[in-house]
Amino acid sequence: MNDNEMMEKEEIFSKVLRAGRRTYFFDVRATKAGDYYLTITESKKFTNDDGSFHYKKHKIYLYKEDFVGFTEILNEMTNYIVDEKGEEVISERHQKDYQKSYEKDTVDNKEEVTASTESFTDVSFDDI
């Protein structure tokens, strides 16, 4: 039996979450002893300069003995994020008019910089 047949055989139940360039795969798999565990795979698509693309994958193996602790911490962390920042997505990728705080400062100060540089006179290094 080759590796692909072995992987297909051990997958018991699967779900997929597509999220833009990222895709999350949730797979229930079986150990050799017949017990179950969960794999969570993040697959992210990257486009090369020549138009071709490749995927980077990261995988987490989660075993039954860790489910309770993992679920508690995941819920605590996601609740914290929603409580602190709300459910609205704040990022330059999702909002066309989004500006990072330092970009706003640069835009706001641009007029001041332009005005202050106009008062400079030409300086010759020979004069120094």
Summarize the structure in words:
With 128 residues, the protein is of the alpha+beta class. The protein has a single domain (7-114), classed as Nuclear Transport Factor 2, Chain: A (Roll), CATH 3.10.450.700. Helix content is 35%, strand content 32%. The protein contains three helices and four strands, in the order αββββαα. Strands 1-2-3-4 form a four-stranded antiparallel beta sheet. A hairpin with a 5-residue loop joins strand 2 and strand 3 (36-47). The longest helix has 19 residues, at 67-85. It is flat, with a radius of gyration of 26 Å.
Distance between the termini: 82 Å
**Major sheet:** 4 strands, antiparallel
Strand order of the largest sheet: 1-2-3-4
User: Could you tell me the number of beta strands?
Assistant: 4
Our count of domains comes out at: 1
Number of helices: 3
Please state the CA-atom Rg, rounded to the nearest Å. Answer: 26 Å
Unreliable stretches (pLDDT < 50, length at least 5) are: 113-120
pLDDT average, as an integer? 79
Shape: flat
CATH architecture: Roll
Strand content: 25-35%
CATH fold field value: Nuclear Transport Factor 2, Chain: A
Coarse structural class: alpha+beta
What attributes does this structure have?
128 residues; alpha+beta; Nuclear Transport Factor 2, Chain: A; four-stranded antiparallel beta sheet
SSE arrangement:
Elements: H1 3-10, E1 11-19, E2 22-30, E3 36-47, E4 53-63, H2 67-85, H3 101-118
Antiparallel strand pairs: 1-2, 2-3, 3-4
Question: In a nutshell, what does this entry contain?
Answer:
The chain is an alpha+beta fold and 128 residues long. The chain contains three helices and four strands, in the order H-E-E-E-E-H-H.
